[in-house]
Amino acid sequence: MTTPISGTHYGLTAGDYHATIASVGASLRTLEHRGRPLVVPFDADEVRPAYRGATLAPWPNRVVDGRYAFDGVEQQLALTEPARGHALHGLATWLDFEPVDRSADAVTLAATIQAQEGYPHRIDVAVAFSLDEQGLHTTVTATNTGSSHAPWGTGPHPYLVAGEGRVDDWTLTLPADTVLTVTEDRLIPVGLEAVAGGGFDFRAPRPIADTFIDHAFTGLIRGEDGAATVTLRAPEGTGVEMTWDGACPWVQIHTADRDIPELDRLGLAVEPMTCPPDAFNSGSDLIVLEPGASTSAGWTIRAI
């Protein structure tokens, strides 16, 4: 049989949960609970649209103009967001990851980001997916196998689905005190602002309605276990939540606005991130991996 263009697929099952992982980009292709979708899926034999479910590395979000300096050397990345002129979502999203561990409810996929123009570092990336009665757990581990220290950031790109309807119909709880404002045209970071009393204040649950969001949030309010949780609920009471620990002090939220009506606002992108947009330039929460060193970050998606 011909391999689908989204790569080799790995089905995971545990209790009432089922997930499908696609090897290209170590992407979460489907996730269901009792047959109810928790993420916007994509077809096995289609080019993954809008980074759905992809693993973002070695940076999440954007590097403005694709340019940055590291160790005093100016670097120029390929511009993978041509409309805005930025390098978007890293270098791993189109790599074909290989399995290194596999069971009925888990799979670990691995790939190497090779040293290249704009990112002269070699990083081994392992993405571990596992299902249990608490949902889908994902851990991304990076190991610097090169000879120089390297800038690093990561995050996932799922579009969460609460139930029937679209983003406008759902209620969001986002435990964040601060939003990173951006320019309207190119989404270039401007500065941090408190959300209190503004349009991005979802610390108490409220309907998203027609609010446009494509912003990073920080100042996360965490539970006693140190975890931050974004909750999305539909009017009928179903929902989905995403939880992560202190490895990700940021989360990008996007209402998936599209010009094509049938694709517009199908799901809410919730992207825990180890660093904010354009961290390769700002240095904010940027991880610097020494040769031989490793770092990990993880998150969980579960049904309500």
Protein model, in words:
There is one protein chain. The chain is an all-beta fold. The chain has a single domain, classed as Beta-galactosidase, Chain A, domain 5. Helices cover 1% and strands 45% of the residues. It contains one helix and 27 strands. A nine-stranded antiparallel β-sheet has the order 10-11-12-13-27-23-22-17-20, with no helix packed on it. Strand 3 and strand 4 (36-37) form a beta hairpin. The mean pLDDT is 97.
Relative helix content: under 10%
Which stretches of 5+ consecutive residues score pLDDT under 50?
none
CATH top level class name: Mainly Beta
Helix count, DSSP H or I runs of 4 or more residues: 1
Number of domains: 1
CATH topology type: Beta-galactosidase, Chain A, domain 5
* H-E string: EEEEEEEEEEEEEEEEEEEEEEEEEHEE
Ordered list of secondary-structure elements with their pairings:
Elements: E1 9-14, E2 17-22, E3 27-33, E4 36-37, E5 55-56, E6 62-63, E7 67-70, E8 73-76, E9 87-88, E10 98-103, E11 106-113, E12 123-132, E13 135-144, E14 150-152, E15 155-156, E16 159-160, E17 171-173, E18 176-182, E19 189-194, E20 206-207, E21 214-220, E22 228-233, E23 239-244, E24 250-254, E25 268-273, H1 279-282, E26 287-289, E27 294-303
Antiparallel strand pairs: 1-2, 2-3, 3-4, 5-15, 6-9, 7-8, 10-11, 11-12, 12-13, 13-27, 14-26, 16-25, 17-20, 17-22, 18-19, 18-21, 21-24, 22-23, 23-27, 24-25
Summarize the model shown.
By secondary structure, the chain is mostly beta strands. Helix content is 1%, strand content 45%. The protein has one domain: Beta-galactosidase, Chain A, domain 5 (Distorted Sandwich), CATH 2.70.98.10.
